[in-house]
């Protein structure tokens, strides 16, 4: 019954900006952590950024200084602000959430949103 829905993808020129949103059907407080992944054809899905309930963040080296992950608990939404975009950022971006208890671990994925950066 948990659903994650991404939005905000599109076509942008190199050097431009884009903000992705991930809306959850329930309270994101229930998730231990959330993050963004991206995938291009023929390559494995890559972790881009994560944020915990405590606010700790992680970024893959290739996006440090350009991307910012954040969350708004009141809106049950996670964001990825992408600045200074490069053609190599082109990919399908996926929202991910994890909830772990003493008895189980559950992973949730959104449907993905396409980001295309033109040179």
Structure characteristics:
mainly beta, globular
- Which value, in Å, is the CA radius of gyration? 14 Å
Residue stretches low in confidence (pLDDT < 50, at least 5 long) are: none
3D shape: globular
Strand content: over 45%
Helix and strand composition category: mainly beta
Give the helices and strands as they follow along the chain: EEEEEEEEEEE
Q: What number is the mean pLDDT?
A: 95
Number of helices: 0
- Note the quaternary state here: single chain
Largest sheet: 7 strands, mixed
Measured distance between first and last alpha carbons: 40 Å
Instruction: Give the helix level as a range of percent.
Output: under 10%
Total number of strands: 11
Walk me through what this model shows.
The strands form 2 sheets. Strands 2, 4, 5, 6, 9, 10 and 11 form a 7-stranded mixed sheet that branches. A 4-stranded antiparallel sheet has the order 1-3-8-7, with no helix packed on it. 0% of the residues lie in helices and 55% in strands. It has no helices and 11 strands. Strand 5 (46-52) and strand 6 form a beta hairpin. It has strands at residues 4-7, 10-13, 18-24, 33-39, 46-52, 57-59, 67-72, 77-82, 91-100, 105-109, 113-118. With 119 residues, the protein is mainly β. The model has no long low-confidence stretch (mean pLDDT 95). The N and C termini lie far apart (40 Å). It is globular.
Topology at a glance:
Blueprint: E1 4-7, E2 10-13, E3 18-24, E4 33-39, E5 46-52, E6 57-59, E7 67-72, E8 77-82, E9 91-100, E10 105-109, E11 113-118
